[in-house]
UniProtKB/TrEMBL annotation:
It is found in: Cell inner membrane. InterPro entries: LipA_acyltrans. One of its GO terms (cellular component) is plasma membrane. Transmembrane segments: none annotated. Keywords: Acyltransferase, Cell inner membrane, Cell membrane, Membrane, Transferase. It comes from the Bacteria. It holds the Pfam family Lip_A_acyltrans. One of its GO terms (molecular function) is acyltransferase activity. The lineage of its organism: Bacteria, Pseudomonadati, Pseudomonadota, Alphaproteobacteria, Hyphomicrobiales. GO terms for biological process: glycolipid biosynthetic process. This is Lipid A biosynthesis lauroyl acyltransferase.
């Protein structure tokens, strides 16, 4: 009897995932007929209203209180609301990426996108057959970064965590392959795939601010966390440059993409990249970004064990 109920539960979950994926697909398809500014603004306002009603809002508030014990409740809630607005914009921007990304390195014209680090993009582009690693965090619209790299003829193979809903995951993977180059889902074999790209002189990108239960212990906002050491291990194996990059939301629906100079990697007594120290340095860099623009980071994930 238990086996029968288990099978029914699996079927119901699969049906719900299928239904929800089609609802999301229908919403995104309908949004294509809206002007970009109106569509993005609508979902930003909707997220402002709906986000605080979800269970994720409590997680966000708990995380913010833990990260900022010096802030009062009004400041904490204001950051959480700003985060939901950012999430609403991010959802809508999937549809309008081709409309909002108006940066062209060959044209000196101010648009929605501004880029800091053009000379670095050009330098990396000219280093043919040399591997590079880029990393970022879930800040602003981080999806714009690989599109920006493509404007400089840089192909970046990115590691990403697919959504839990398998039907949505397939749609996202298909869309990102079209717009953002190659992707490697974070599952068994992902490390080998990225290593293969680097070994061939390619470029890889990673989001480094996700919880990883089997990761290296470190600190983030003065609280213990576990972080995936994959980037540090790859940097050690291939002894290649590592570049931080981030997206910042600006007023009036604009964006600034920043590519920073090559990161100085901590090394051990033998001159090899120090895995633990490098992983902690990634946490420190991301923390500095989040502290600068706290409302642009995803606070609703369980980054800490609390």
């Amino acid at each position: 009897m238990k086996l029968i109920f288990f099978r029914i539960a699996i079927k119901l979950k699969d049906w719900w995932d299928w239904l929800w994926a089609h609802v999301v697909a229908a919403i995104l398809a309908g949004m294509k007929y809206l002007p970009a500014k109106a569509g993005i603004g609508f979902f930003a306002g909707l997220a402002r209203l709906v986000g605080p009603l979800t269970p994720r809002h409590k997680i966000a508030l708990d995380n913010l209180r833990a990260a900022y014990p010096e802030k009062d409740e009004a400041e904490i809630r204001a950051i959480a609301i700003e985060m939901w607005v950012n999430m609403g914009r991010l959802f809508a921007e999937y549809v309008f990426l081709d409309k909002i990304f108006d940066f062209d390195p060959k044209v000196e014209k101010a648009g929605l996108i501004e880029v800091d680090g053009i000379e670095l993009f050009e330098k990396i582009r000219d280093e043919k057959d040399k591997p590079h690693i880029f990393f970022t965090a879930h800040t602003g619209n981080f999806e714009l970064l690989p599109i920006c790299a493509a404007t400089f003829d840089l192909e970046v193979t990115a590691l990403f965590r697919p959504p839990n809903n398998p039907y949505i995951a397939r749609r996202v993977l298909k869309a990102r392959r079209t717009n953002m180059g190659h992707l490697v889902p974070s599952k068994a074999g992902a490390a080998w795939a990225l290593a293969g790209k680097l070994n061939a002189g390619g470029n890889v990108g990673m989001l480094v601010d996700q919880k990883f239960r089997r990761g290296i212990e470190g600190a983030f906002f003065n609280r213990p966390v576990k972080t995936n050491p994959l980037l540090a291990k790859l940097a050690r194996q291939f002894d290649c440059p590592v570049y931080p990059a981030r997206c910042i939301r600006l007023p009036s629906g604009r964006y600034r993409l920043e590519l920073y100079p090559e990161m100085e990697l901590p090394r051990d007594a033998n001159g090899a990249v120090d895995i633990e120290a490098t992983t902690q340095k990634l946490n420190d860099i991301v923390e500095s970004w989040v502290r600068e623009y706290p409302g642009q980071w995803m606070w609703f994930h369980k980054r800490w064990d609390m």
